[in-house]
Amino acid sequence: MASGAQAVEDPIVKQLQEYTTCDVADALVKLKISHGGFLPGITMWSPQRQDGTTKMIGPAYTVQYAPKEDERPKWPSHYIDSVPRGAVVFVTSTPKSSNALYGGLMSTRAKASEAAGSVIDGRFRDLQEQKDLGYPVFARDVGTTPPGPLFKVVGVNEPVTVDNDGQDVVIRPEDYLIGDVNGVVVLPRELAEQALPLMKKQVEADSQMAAAIAGGMGFAEASKKFRS
């Protein structure tokens, strides 16, 4: 479980705690979402680097950075002060930059607001501070330089887009973001109730397959028997 408080009042969040990001992706593929909601290149950095049982689940709270010369006005307040309890902060920029979009003070405030975690579609900084907080952070990479010299926040809680090897993955406010050691996936809110029974069925079938394979059954035979 993530160290931040989860939105336990949301029954979807509560049910998703039983599943991995792979389970979510499998269900979305069955619902004809070919990329499975996967956000490529984004991995766990805190509280541990690609290790442990941390699971981050919550509705997305999106933040869009753009170059300072962008015609859109700078967001009038700091986005981190409006993060809802149980939300997952998702920060992105267009275009990408070597400057970090997010730092330790952001996580300090987010944790105090009982956010579930943060996902940075770019670089973040203050890695040791993030780990010391025990706060879940998923990102593409680390950096040292703040965004201020080049970027400004131009949108909060608006749809944002992440490229998945040529396939656009759109993240809208309140879509579910799920992160664990496998990576991060986005589950569209309107598909959640359809996806959950598919996850349950898949996990049950895979558990039976694993037991059969461990007992000597071939993969193809076990797949035909339990997944058909």
- Alpha-carbon distance between the two ends: 32 Å
Tell me about the largest β-sheet. 8 strands, mixed
pLDDT < 50 runs, ≥5 residues: 1-8
β-strand percent reads 25-35%
Q: What is the global morphology?
A: elongated
Mean pLDDT: 93
Helix content: 25-40%
GO molecular function: 4-hydroxy-4-methyl-2-oxoglutarate aldolase activity; metal ion binding; oxaloacetate decarboxylase activity
Organism: Dichotomopilus funicola
Pfam family, one: RraA-like
Binding site for Mg(2+): 126
How is this structure best described in words?
It is a single chain. The chain is of the alpha/beta class and 228 residues long. The protein has a single domain (11-188), classed as Ribonuclease E inhibitor RraA/RraA-like (Glucose Oxidase, domain 1). Helix content is 28%, strand content 27%. It contains 6 helices and 10 strands, in the order ααβββαβαββββββαα. It has helices at residues 11-16, 21-30, 104-112, 127-133, 192-214, 219-227; strands at residues 43-46, 56-67, 88-93, 117-124, 137-142, 151-156, 160-164, 167-171, 176-180, 183-187. The strands form 2 sheets. Strands 1, 2, 3, 4, 5, 6, 9 and 10 form an 8-stranded mixed β-sheet that branches. Strands 7-8 form a two-stranded antiparallel ribbon. 41% of the residues are buried. Mean pLDDT is 93; it is low at 1-8.
Summary keywords:
oxaloacetate decarboxylase activity, 228 residues, RraA/RraA-like_sf, metal ion binding, alpha/beta, 28% helix, Glucose Oxidase, domain 1, two-stranded antiparallel sheet, 8-stranded mixed sheet, disordered N terminus, magnesium
